């Protein structure tokens, strides 16, 4: 799929990073504000889809030499891993906990194990979406 | 609690798991040697219980399985159960030993054989040692299943598959009927425990379900024990390897039905129907089995019909023994003897029939045939096998001094005594019993003689044999030698069984006769004096010998029956008919058209839901509703318009863009309905989906209209309109009726305190319902893997599609 | 509002069912997608609409709308995306292999031999 739409490509260069930055914000903010693994992941994925649409697959592959199937697998492992982690503390599968920590610059922050689980979700969503789009795109 | 007893029952199952590994990893050693240890250990283990049951104790161990339904794996060891457990493990041990020499480790799939055999052994132990009817039923069906697998062991043979299927269909049908009977028993007594049912047996005799329960349970027992007219599966089951025939189809599995009858006698025996049905079917089977056996030419065929006949004999004795329950005590109770005879013959049958089957296997193994027309004169080349055959057959024929003589005498006693029973027309019609029994015994005598003399005497016909016959190796002879030794030992010293095994087993079958501290006294002896039984035996020998010698002259009697009226023919016709009807019926609705299937689903959806909605009077519109603003009205109008456009457009592009519009409109509704997470997700998903659709559909054809005529579309429209209306009705009434308090209040309180999150939706996703989310992303990953596979990994042979 | 939304869900179901029953594979896929939209709307409606603030504790509102159906729908949206993509590729591959997207012509024979 060759594309050389100059306007789209130029716009993509700017917008891409805004979307990516926003998606990361959405992801981390998910525990308290709208957002989270699904939304963050989908947003990141949509940024990459935009890149795919504006440029071609080869180019995206050069920029991001990542096998998205592995990203999916890594996400699944992370999610299952946080679940299994509960066993180390003798609590049921997928029990989550949280606590507050004080950091030098950032001040007091809440850290929850649920966030680790959400990382898994985030990675799976990105991996799945891009695997699908990439495979279909490459076939044509 | 899990006890050693439970472990003993499941031990064969556990061992079965390791059999394939042993077979693969240690191909040098015959797998049977490993398997042999299981029945050997279990046999010794169960022997320990002999002193317990001899002193009239029972052992019960409970292990909860489905406590909410009252289903517990209750292992109950009493005299009857222990007798069977010893038979199963003892004969099992000998059969495994025999199979080591019978089945070649180079040619046969031993892993399958021993896995199935152990599976059977465990299931059979489960049947006889479970106190819970449902557990018993489960194990019962596993025995049918393992029998099926073992009969079809040489599955490349057409006849093996036919025999396996036949036995499966008949025994599983009976098993299912038995389950119905068990449920009826539960309905009457409120418990699945056999002991508790027996305790309340007196209360249920007049219950409406009493007779149906009895009939359905008996159907299960009769099919399993190959009673006329369900016996037709047993001769075909002889396609199994001989060790299996000796074990399952003569010594143990077919006796499961007898076990069930004996076990439930205390429940049902108060009714005359039980006595008539059990004894009647038994005596008919006894006659028909022995009569048909004479006609057979295959050694195993003779033995199969002989087994059918002997099972009938045991059952008829149990039926007559039921008469004993009508008396309150043991004094002057003639009919106790019948039960004693049944148990004694059960053991005897296992010994002589087991040895005879092994004998038939040896003959087959060493000469290459089991056809008595081709055999003959083997006495000189196979002297040990001949001896085994003589002892086994003479015992079966009821000749002294073997154990078969003793039990046959006791059988005659029982049959003669029943004519004096003063109820249920026994004193008039009962006279049929001794007559039929006597005639059947003559035929038993004839086929027993055929087994020995047609095979081992006369002229040897080497030209009809494929191999040169010679005596079997010692290992193969060992098991039948042990069994015939038992035939002789039990013949001379029957009372070693009387105190240890028979009396406790009788206490299980006839518990109501025993008062506090009482016990049965069984004393079996040879010489009764010049009684009617002895004259009957002499008559059997005399007439039997005459008929055997003149067999050639009257054998034509078997051709009188037209072949189209035989039970086998009826069975074959039924199976063929059922197959035809079911394939027609299936073909009528399984059209392999996706549209038809969807129509079924949607029609069912509409009919079922609308019916329930109005039948239960669930429809209502009085719920509190939120106000509608102009903005929302406009959105709704957009939604409806777009939906209609998508429905009726011809253009592919319009349909896809319309779908996108629908998605975005719904996202806006999510915003209105205070669902920010949903709105965000929906917006992004819709964007990605549209991109995906466009990518894909670029290559797909236009939606063509000429395929679908007006009538087709009108039909679809009616169905879809009905579906839409149903959904609307459900939505309105669901909103209007709140059956119980919503759990919504939990989340605002708990999500910050327990999960440290302020976004409740996200907290639910990652914390409260994290398992759902985990599986959801798994589904996503599977979908992606599927897509990747479909595109990238094409089938090598494209024409296969 | 709930009645209006129930009707909208019904309209979506109707449109989806109509599409699914047609013979063209594309329309079937679009139909399944529309049906899942309908299901989402129906779920949300059943729980009651506009009963409180968005389910975000940071707003410190008096009442919140029920977060549970929202979580369920969120899951459903993502799943239906996966399923729709799968169907789409299935249709696409079937078309590539057989040259038709007419389900009547894609019918198998269902024979075992």
From TrEMBL, chain A:
Belongs to the CPA3 antiporters (TC 2.A.63) subunit B family. Pfam families: MnhB (PF04039). The keyword DNA damage does not apply. Its main location: membrane. It comes from Alteribacillus persepolensis. One of its GO terms (cellular component) is plasma membrane. The keyword Membrane applies. InterPro entries: CPA3_antiporter_subunitB, MnhB. Keywords: Cell membrane, Membrane, Transmembrane, Transmembrane helix. This is Multisubunit sodium/proton antiporter, MrpB subunit. It comes from the Bacteria.
Automatic annotation (TrEMBL), chain B:
InterPro entries: CPA3_Na-H_Antiporter_A, MrpA/MnhA1/PhaAB, MrpA_C/MbhD, MrpA_C/MbhE, ND/Mrp_TM, Proton_antipo_N. Residues 130-429 form the NADH:quinone oxidoreductase/Mrp antiporter transmembrane domain. Keywords: Antiport, Cell membrane, Hydrogen ion transport, Ion transport, Membrane, Sodium, Sodium transport, Transmembrane, Transmembrane helix, Transport. Signal peptide: none annotated. It comes from the Bacteria. Its main location: membrane. GO terms for molecular function: antiporter activity. One of its GO terms (biological process) is proton transmembrane transport. Belongs to the CPA3 antiporters (TC 2.A.63) subunit A family. This is Multisubunit sodium/proton antiporter, MrpA subunit. It comes from Alteribacillus persepolensis. The lineage of its organism: Bacteria, Bacillati, Bacillota, Bacilli, Bacillales.
From TrEMBL, chain C:
It is found in: Cell membrane. Pfam families: Oxidored_q2. InterPro entries: CPA3_antiporter_subunitC, NUOK/Mnh_C1-like. Keywords: Cell membrane, Membrane, Transmembrane, Transmembrane helix. It comes from the Bacteria. It is a multi-pass membrane protein. Belongs to the CPA3 antiporters (TC 2.A.63) subunit C family. This is Multisubunit sodium/proton antiporter, MrpC subunit. It comes from Alteribacillus persepolensis. The lineage of its organism: Bacteria, Bacillati, Bacillota, Bacilli, Bacillales.
